[in-house]
Design goal:
The relative contact order is 0.14. This protein has a single domain, classed as Endonuclease/exonuclease/phosphatase (Deoxyribonuclease I, Chain A), CATH 3.60.10.10. It has a six-stranded mixed beta sheet with strand order 7-8-9-10-12-11, with helices on one face. A four-stranded mixed beta sheet has the order 1-2-6-5, with no helix packed on it. β3 and β4 form a beta hairpin. It is built from three helices and twelve strands, in the order βαββββββββαβαββ. It has 228 residues and is an alpha+beta fold.
Length: 228
């Protein structure tokens, strides 16, 4: 496979296992799937050397056709809020999750090899306090070949949402971070909202973004799928 053939899907599933299962089942034509806010489910109790009753094994949804990458859950309320699924047909890419480089529950940093060259991808979720962006801002990471940062950024800004009239300082931090990884904001090929409000008093918005490698001739655009 060459990079320009890589197909990536991203969605906030709002803790719905049903939606995750559906995405994994019907999107086998995609190569990589980024999920934000997955549901964590108790699988079973497993033996423990420190607890006679065992400990609960908690996992996100798995599927035979997909390799699952997610942080381990420690049964706290601070469940990880991002996961990545890589199509099993890309198993020879030797994908790896790098908690040793970026250790935050809302950021998943993964690598893979194509033609003996190492590439990186990042799935991210921003909560209302923007803790993930503050974490990245305080870090110094020298990474080459980061292809994409995408996810649910929860930032309203006129730069990517024509219906929103204002600009926020947190957006500047995001652009600076993307630039440090040699990434540019990818503009939608179809200008539609990425989040539809359940409240008639609130407008729809664009808060799911994608940053792609600068001047890339292979990864150069993204589209919002209306059927999702």
């Amino acid at each position: 496979m060459i990079l320009k053939e890589l197909r990536i899907f991203s969605q906030n599933v709002r803790k719905s296992n049903l939606v995750v299962k559906m995405i994994l089942e019907v999107n086998f034509n995609f190569d990589i799937i980024f999920i934000q806010k997955p549901s964590w489910t108790t699988i079973r109790s497993i033996p423990s050397s420190v607890d006679s009753e065992g400990v609960l094994l908690v996992r996100v949804v798995n599927h035979l056709n997909w390799l699952t990458f997610a942080r381990e859950s420690d049964m706290s309320k601070e469940y990880p809020r991002v996961t990545i699924f890589i199509n099993i047909r890309l198993a020879l890419f030797h994908s790896s999750f790098h908690k040793d480089i970026i250790n935050h529950r809302d950021i998943l940093f993964t690598s893979f090899f194509v033609n003996n060259e190492l590439f990186w991808i990042m799935n991210i979720y921003f909560d209302s306090s923007h803790s993930a962006i503050k974490y990245l801002k305080d870090m110094e990471i020298n990474i080459c070949n980061l292809l994409i940062i995408t996810g649910d950024f929860n930032i309203h800004n006129s730069l990517w949402d024509p219906s929103f009239p204002h600009h926020s300082s947190i957006s500047d931090d995001l652009i600076i971070i993307a630039d440090s990884f040699n990434l540019n904001l990818s503009m939608l090929t179809n200008h539609v909202p990425t989040r539809y409000s359940n409240n008639n008093n609130d407008s729809n918005s664009v808060i799911d973004l994608m940053f792609l490698q600068c001047s890339s001739s292979e990864l150069d655009n993204h589209t919002i799928l209306s059927n999702w």
